[in-house]
C-alpha cells in the first residue's frame, strides 16, 4: 500500500491523474513511463532547492534560517514549471499527434507542424534554463576550494594593479613636494659655500695684512673690517636659508604624509571594490579556471550535461515519443466533455430561440390589443370632447350671466360713492367730499400693456357685497352656489384690498369655523386679460403649494369650481406694507426687520419651491398681527432650475417701478433671484424716501408717472439712476444708502457680492443686510424715524380726508 501511494505521488509529479494511470487498460509500460517522468521532475525540483541553499550560503557566508523558505519557494517554482513542461496536452485536437484528416489542407498541416515546432523549441529552451539554474550552484560548491584560490590570485593581481595606478596618479604630487624641499636645501648649500669663501678671504687678510706686513686692523675703512662685515652678512644669509629649509622640511613631511594617507585610502577603497566574493565573482573565477585548465573545463561541462539530460529527457520523451494511451484517454474524455457542453449550449440556444419567438408572438398580440383599446379610447375621447365643449359653453353662459349681475351691483355701488363724494346725504349721514391726490400711494399704476399688474391700490369703503370687515357675528345660511370645496363661503369683494392686476379677491369665511375669515383669489373673468388671469392663478397654485416658509402666507386650499373657476385660499391679514407706509411712522430698525423677513421668505421660496417671485412690491407684502412679513401673490413666479415651470404665451407681465430691466426686456437667462433683490431694493427705497425709484426722475423729464409708457420707462431705467436716498435723508447711514443703490443696480451681477454656488442672490443680499444692521446699531441709529415716510404721512391720502370728514360729521350729529 505505501508503494502504491508513492507510485501515485510520482504520477502526480508527472502531471498525470493517478486514477487514470492505474486504469487496467493502460498497461504497465504507461505506469513505468509516468513514474520515471515524475521521478525526474521531483529530482529536478529537489536539486533546485538544494542549489538555492548553496547559493544563499555563498552570498551570506554562512547559513541563515531565512534560507529555508527561500530555497523551498525556488524548489516549488522549479518543480511546477518542470511539471507543466512534461504534462501539457493539446486538448483541442483529440486525434493522435501526427495523424491527419481528409479535410486537412496543406496549409493546415504546415500550420500544425509549425505550431508543434514552436512549442517544442519553447519547452527545450525553458528546460535548458532550468538545467543551468540548477547546475551552476552545484558546480560552485563542488569546486569551491579551486574557486577560492583563483579568487585570491585575482584579488592580489587587482590590488597590485590598483596600487600602481594610484601611485602613478599621485606621482606628480610627490615630485612637487620633493622639488619644493630640494629648492630650500640648495639655497642652504649655496649660502654655506658663500660663507666659506668669505671666511677664507678674511683669514687670508688676517694672516698677511693684505701683503702690507702690518697685520689686520679693525678700524673703520680698513680692508679687514670690510671682510669681517661680509662674513657676518653671509652668516645671516646662511641662518635664514637654514630656517627656510627647516620650515620646508616640516611642510615636506606633512604634505608627504597627507598624500600618502590619501593614496592608502584610495587603495583601501579600491581594494574593497575590486575584491568581490559574490556569486558573479565566483562564476568568473570558475570560467578563468576552465579556460586555464582544459581538463577541469571538460569535467564542468560533463556535470552540466548530466543536469541538462536529467531535465530535458522527460521533455524530449514527451515531445518525440508516440502518443501514450493516457494522453489519448484524456483527449477523448476532454472531447466528450466539450461535445457535451456544446450540446447543452445548443439546447439552451434553441430554448432561447423558442422563448424569443413566443415573446414576439405575445408582443404582437399585445400591440394588436393595445391598438384596439387605443382606437376605442380615441372614439370615446371624441365623444367626451363634444360633451366637454357643450359643458364649457353652458358654463360660459352661466358665468356671463353672473358677471353681468355682479357688474350691475358694482355700478350701483359706484353711483352711491359718487353721491357720497358730492356731499349728499346717504342713510342719514352727511359726507364732505375728499380731494384725491394722484401722486400719493392710493393710486393704481398700470402695469405692462396698460394693465394694473399688481400696482398699489388705496383703501375704499367697504363693499356691501362683502359685509362687515371684521368679526363674523352670526352667519346666515350660505347659498350653496357661494361655497367652494364644501368649506369656504364667499361673502363678497374683499374690502380695503390692494387688488392684484389679474386677480379678483373675495372675502370668505370658513364654514367649519365661521369666525375665521380668509381671502379667496380667483382669475378675472371679464376683459381682454382673462386668459392671462387664468394662467396667473394656475401659476399661483403651482408654486404656492410648494413653498415652506414662515414668511410666506400659507396656502389653506386650492381648487377649481365649475362656475367660480380656479382659486387659491389664504389667511386674511390685517394690513399690507402699502397701508403701513401710509398710516404709521417708521423707524430704521422696523425697515431693516421687514427687509430681512422679505429676503428670508425669498430664500425659502428659492430653496423649497425652486422658483423666484418676480412681483415683490408693497401690495404683495402682507403683515400679520405681530408685524411679521407674509409674502403673497405668486402669479408671476417662475422656476429657476430644471423644467418645473408652466408655459404660456402670457410671459411679459411685470410691475413697473419694481421690476428690473432684464425682467422687462426678457434678456437671455434673465430668470434669477437677482430680479427679486432689485424689487426688494425698490421697496426699501420707497420706505426710506416716500416715493418709488425714478418717480422724481420721470417728473423731471416731463413725463407723468401715471401715464409713462413701457418704452419710456425702459429708456429711463437704461439712462437714469434714482437719486440717492442720503440726499433726501441726510441722516441716513452711509451703509444703508450704499446697499440700497447696489440692489438697484442695472447689472444683476453688481447687486450682490460673494460666490453664489448653490445659494440664491436673496441669501447673499440678506447677509449684506445683516452687516448693515450691525453698522446702524453701532452708530446708535436703529430707532431713528424715517423723515420721508413722515412727510408722506402728513400729506395723507384722499381716502383719509374722506374718512376724517365723515367721522367729524357723525360726531356733530351725535
Keywords:
62% helix, disordered C terminus, 6-stranded antiparallel sheet, 814 residues, alpha+beta, 3-stranded antiparallel sheet, flat, ATP-binding, Phosphorylase Kinase, domain 1, 13 strands
Explain the layout of strands and helices.
Elements: H1 2-13, H2 18-21, H3 28-60, H4 67-87, H5 106-142, H6 144-208, H7 223-274, H8 279-292, H9 294-320, H10 325-421, E1 425-426, E2 429-430, E3 483-484, E4 488-493, E5 503-510, E6 517-523, H11 530-544, E7 557-561, E8 565-571, E9 575-576, H12 577-583, H13 588-608, E10 611-612, E11 621-623, E12 629-631, E13 638-639, H14 661-665, H15 673-689, H16 695-700, H17 710-719, H18 725-728, H19 734-743, H20 761-779, H21 787-795, H22 798-813
Antiparallel strand pairs: 1-2, 3-4, 4-5, 5-6, 6-8, 7-8, 9-11, 10-13, 11-12
Helix pairs in contact: 1-3, 3-4, 3-5, 3-9, 4-9, 5-9, 6-7, 6-8, 8-9, 13-15, 13-20, 15-19, 19-20
Amino acid at each position: 500500500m505505501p508503494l502504491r501511494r508513492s507510485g501515485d505521488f510520482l504520477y502526480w509529479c508527472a502531471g498525470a491523474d493517478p486514477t487514470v494511470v492505474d486504469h487496467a487498460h493502460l498497461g504497465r509500460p504507461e505506469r513505468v513511463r509516468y513514474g520515471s517522468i515524475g521521478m525526474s521532475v521531483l529530482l529536478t525540483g529537489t536539486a533546485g532547492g538544494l542549489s538555492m541553499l548553496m547559493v544563499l550560503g555563498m552570498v551570506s557566508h554562512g547559513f541563515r534560517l531565512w534560507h529555508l523558505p527561500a530555497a523551498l519557494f525556488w524548489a516549488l517554482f522549479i518543480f511546477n514549471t518542470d511539471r507543466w513542461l512534461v504534462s501539457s496536452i493539446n486538448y483541442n485536437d483529440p486525434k493522435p499527434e501526427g495523424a491527419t484528416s481528409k479535410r486537412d489542407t496543406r496549409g493546415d498541416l504546415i500550420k500544425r507542424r509549425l505550431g508543434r515546432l514552436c512549442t517544442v523549441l519553447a519547452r527545450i529552451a525553458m528546460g535548458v534554463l532550468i538545467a543551468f539554474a540548477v547546475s551552476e550552484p552545484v558546480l560552485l560548491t563542488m569546486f569551491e576550494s579551486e574557486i577560492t584560490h583563483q579568487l585570491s590570485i585575482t584579488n592580489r593581481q587587482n590590488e597590485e594593479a590598483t596600487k600602481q595606478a594610484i601611485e602613478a596618479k599621485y606621482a606628480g604630487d610627490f615630485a612637487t613636494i620633493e622639488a619644493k624641499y630640494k629648492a630650500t636645501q640648495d639655497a642652504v648649500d649655496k649660502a654655506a659655500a658663500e660663507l666659506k669663501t668669505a671666511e677664507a678671504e678674511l683669514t687670508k687678510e688676517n694672516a698677511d695684512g693684505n701683503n702690507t706686513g702690518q697685520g689686520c686692523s679693525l678700524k673703520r675703512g680698513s680692508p679687514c673690517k670690510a671682510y669681517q662685515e661680509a662674513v657676518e652678512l653671509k652668516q645671516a644669509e646662511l641662518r635664514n636659508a637654514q630656517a627656510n629649509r627647516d620650515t620646508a622640511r616640516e611642510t615636506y613631511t606633512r604634505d608627504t604624509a597627507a598624500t600618502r594617507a590619501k593614496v592608502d585610502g584610495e587603495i583601501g577603497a579600491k581594494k574593497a571594490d575590486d575584491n568581490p566574493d559574490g556569486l558573479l565573482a565566483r562564476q568568473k573565477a570558475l570560467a578563468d579556471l576552465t579556460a586555464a585548465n582544459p581538463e577541469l573545463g571538460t569535467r564542468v561541462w560533463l556535470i552540466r550535461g548530466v543536469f541538462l539530460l536529467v531535465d530535458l529527457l522527460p521533455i524530449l520523451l514527451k515531445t518525440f515519443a508516440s502518443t501514450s494511451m493516457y494522453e489519448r484517454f484524456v483527449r477523448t474524455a476532454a472531447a466528450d466533455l466539450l461535445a457535451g457542453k456544446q450540446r447543452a449550449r445548443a439546447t439552451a440556444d434553441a430554448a432561447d430561440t423558442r422563448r424569443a419567438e413566443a415573446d414576439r408572438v405575445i408582443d404582437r398580440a399585445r400591440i394588436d390589443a393595445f391598438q384596439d383599446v387605443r382606437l376605442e379610447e380615441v372614439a370615446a375621447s371624441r365623444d367626451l370632447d363634444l360633451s366637454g365643449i357643450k359643458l364649457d359653453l353652458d358654463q360660459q353662459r352661466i358665468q356671463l350671466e353672473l358677471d353681468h349681475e355682479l357688474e350691475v351691483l358694482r355700478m350701483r355701488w359706484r353711483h352711491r360713492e359718487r353721491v357720497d363724494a358730492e356731499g349728499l346725504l346717504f342713510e342719514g349721514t352727511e359726507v364732505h367730499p375728499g380731494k384725491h391726490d394722484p401722486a400719493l400711494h392710493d393710486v393704481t399704476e398700470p402695469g405692462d400693456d396698460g394693465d394694473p399688474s399688481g400696482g398699489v391700490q388705496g383703501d375704499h369703503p367697504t363693499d356691501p357685497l362683502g359685509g362687515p370687515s371684521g368679526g363674523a357675528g352670526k352667519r346666515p345660511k350660505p347659498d350653496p352656489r357661494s361655497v367652494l370645496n364644501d368649506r369656504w363661503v364667499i361673502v363678497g369683494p374683499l374690502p380695503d384690498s390692494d387688488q392684484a392686476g389679474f386677480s379678483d379677491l373675495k372675502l370668505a369665511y370658513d364654514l367649519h369655523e365661521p369666525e375665521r375669515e380668509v381671502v379667496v383669489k380667483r382669475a378675472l373673468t371679464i376683459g381682454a386679460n382673462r386668459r392671462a388671469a387664468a394662467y396667473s392663478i394656475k401659476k399661483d397654485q403651482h408654486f404656492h403649494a410648494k413653498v415652506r416658509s414662515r414668511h410666506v402666507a400659507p396656502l389653506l386650499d386650492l381648487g377649481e369650481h365649475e362656475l367660480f373657476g380656479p382659486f387659491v385660499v389664504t389667511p386674511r391679514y390685517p394690513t399690507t406694507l402699502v397701508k403701513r407706509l401710509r398710516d404709521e411712522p417708521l423707524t430704521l430698525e422696523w425697515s431693516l426687520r421687514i427687509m430681512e423677513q422679505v429676503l428670508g421668505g425669498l430664500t425659502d421660496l428659492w430653496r423649497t419651491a425652486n422658483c423666484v417671485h418676480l412681483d415683490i412690491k408693497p401690495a404683495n407684502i402682507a403683515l400679520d398681527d405681530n408685524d411679521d412679513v407674509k409674502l403673497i401673490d405668486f402669479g408671476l413666479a417662475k422656476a429657476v432650475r430644471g423644467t418645473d415651470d408652466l408655459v404660456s404665451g402670457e410671459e411679459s407681465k411685470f410691475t413697473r417701478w419694481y421690476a428690473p430691466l432684464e425682467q422687462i426686456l426678457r434678456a437671455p437667462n434673465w430668470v434669477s433671484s437677482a430680479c427679486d433683490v432689485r424689487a426688494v431694493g425698490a421697496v426699501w427705497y420707497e420706505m426710506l424716501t416716500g416715493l418709488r425709484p425714478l418717480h422724481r426722475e420721470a417728473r423731471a423729464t416731463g413725463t407723468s408717472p401715471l401715464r409713462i409708457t413701457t418704452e419710456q420707462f425702459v429708456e429711463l431705467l437704461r439712462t437714469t439712476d434714482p437719486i440717492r436716498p442720503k440726499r433726501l435723508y441726510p441722516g441716513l447711514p452711509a451703509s444703508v444708502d450704499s446697499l440700497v443703490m447696489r440692489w438697484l443696480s442695472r447689472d444683476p451681477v453688481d447687486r450682490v457680492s460673494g460666490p453664489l454656488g448653490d445659494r440664491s442672490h436673496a441669501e447673499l443680499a440678506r447677509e449684506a443686510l445683516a452687516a448693515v444692521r450691525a453698522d446702524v446699531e453701532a452708530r446708535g441709529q436703529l430707532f431713528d424715524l424715517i423723515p420721508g415716510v413722515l412727510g408722506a404721512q402728513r400729506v395723507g391720502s384722499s381716502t383719509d380726508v374722506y374718512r376724517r370728514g365723515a367721522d367729524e360729521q357723525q360726531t356733530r350729529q351725535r
